[in-house]
């Protein structure tokens, strides 16, 4: 089971919005050297809604090749079309991804039975480990815990990224799923709580800018060293909150640009961070010691 701090890595772009693969490679090295436990590419933070299919596959290919087995690579391959999700998942397997992350179908709002059949179809079509991704605040669609339990019985559905932020809900899920089914937090602000309750790590936005601290916090939390984990989390908490002052990935890309890791490129309809939040983010950076 993959555990720890898995970064939902940004997609670096040039100022004209074209992909900046050289900066992506440098970010990967930054994460590997800092102890990040896995790279999640082309997720929400990677601007998956605005990269086309060719770019999507190129980002997976580039990541897999540059990581070169140093850490696992999880490819975002979800879609609100089941056939498209299957096609992307097949391509990710072909390109050498270690696992895939499949978001709940967005906008079309399927029923719980529809969700079960959607994820089942992808799992049966492509023999690769698959992680569910529940982020109802983005998708308008919620994978209920009982549906997750049904899906966990499928051998290659191996975990879930739970971005609901609900600690009570996360506890309920951990009590219901098999011991070998990974429950990852998808909400940085509550990730420590979920790990202390038995969660297996976090698929993190904060890890983009503070990878070593996030890795260290996960290690301490899952080892039961509550005091050390809380101390690290206190340093990170400003980032956990303020990286969402505007829609992700706007704030995190701004911080990475301030750190000198990427250029300012971001794709419409996303735009660069509003001036009114610059001081707020700088304060969070200083608190975490990354200013």
- What's the architecture, going by CATH? Alpha-Beta Barrel
- Return residue spans where pLDDT drops below 50 for at least 5 consecutive residues: none
Report the total helices: 12
User: Given the helix and strand composition, which structural class is it?
Assistant: alpha/beta
Radius of gyration, CA atoms, in whole angstroms: 18 Å
Cα end-to-end separation: 34 Å
Strand order of the largest sheet: 1-2-3-4-5-6-7-8
Number of strands: 8
For the sheet with most strands, the description reads:
8 strands, parallel, barrel
The best one-word shape is globular
Percentage of residues in DSSP E strands: 5-15%
On the 0 to 100 scale, the average pLDDT is 97
CATH homologous superfamily assignment: Aldolase class I
**Can you tell me the CATH class?**
Alpha Beta
The number of domains? 1
Task: Indicate the percent of residues in helices.
Answer: 40-55%
Instruction: Provide the CATH topology.
Output: TIM Barrel
| Helix and strand run | EHEHEHEHEHHEHEHEHHHH
Feature tags:
TIM Barrel; single chain; globular; alpha/beta; 12 helices
Question: How would you describe what is shown here?
Answer:
The protein is an alpha/beta fold and 291 residues long. It has a single domain (4-235), classed as TIM Barrel (Alpha-Beta Barrel). The chain is built from 12 helices and 8 strands. The protein has helices at 21-34, 53-67, 82-95, 112-125, 136-139, 145-152, 167-176, 188-196, 211-222, 226-242, 250-258, 278-288; strands at residues 4-8, 38-41, 73-76, 99-103, 130-134, 157-162, 182-185, 201-204. An 8-stranded parallel β-barrel has the order 1-2-3-4-5-6-7-8, surrounded by 7 helices. Helix 4 (112-125) runs parallel beside helix 6 (145-152), helix 6 (145-152) runs parallel beside helix 7 and helix 8 (188-196) packs antiparallel against helix 10 (226-242). The longest helix is centred in the last third of the chain and has 17 residues, at 226-242. The protein is globular. The two termini are 34 Å apart.
């Amino acid at each position: 089971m993959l555990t720890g701090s898995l970064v939902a890595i940004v997609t670096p772009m040039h100022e004209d919005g074209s992909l900046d693969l050289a900066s992506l490679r440098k970010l990967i090295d930054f994460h590997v050297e800092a102890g990040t436990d896995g790279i999640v590419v082309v997720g929400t933070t990677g601007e998956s809604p605005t990269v086309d299919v060719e770019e999507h596959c190129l980002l997976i290919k580039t990541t897999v090749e540059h990581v070169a087995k140093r850490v696992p690579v999880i490819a975002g391959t979800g879609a609100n079309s089941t056939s498209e999700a299957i096609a992307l998942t097949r391509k990710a397997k072909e390109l050498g991804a270690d696992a895939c992350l499949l978001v709940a179908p967005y906008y079309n709002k399927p029923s719980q039975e529809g969700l079960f059949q959607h994820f089942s179809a992808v799992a049966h079509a492509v023999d690769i480990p698959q992680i569910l991704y529940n982020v109802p605040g983005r998708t308008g669609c919620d994978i209920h815990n009982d549906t997750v339990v049904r899906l966990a019985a499928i051998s290659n559905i191996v975990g879930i990224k739970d971005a609901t932020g609900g600690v009570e809900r996360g506890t309920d899920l951990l009590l219901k799923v098999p011991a070998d089914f990974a429950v990852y937090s998808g909400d940085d602000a509550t990730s420590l709580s979920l790990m202390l309750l038995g969660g297996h790590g976090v698929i993190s936005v904060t890890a983009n800018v503070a990878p070593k601290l996030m890795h260290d916090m996960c290690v301490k939390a899952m080892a039961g060293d509550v005091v050390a984990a809380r101390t690290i989390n206190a340093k990170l908490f400003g980032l956990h909150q303020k990286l969402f002052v505007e829609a992700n990935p706007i704030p995190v890309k701004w911080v990475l640009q301030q750190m000198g890791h990427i250029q300012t490129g971001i794709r419409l309809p996303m735009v660069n961070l509003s001036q009114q939040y610059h001081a707020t983010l700088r304060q969070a950076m200083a608190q975490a010691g990354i200013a």
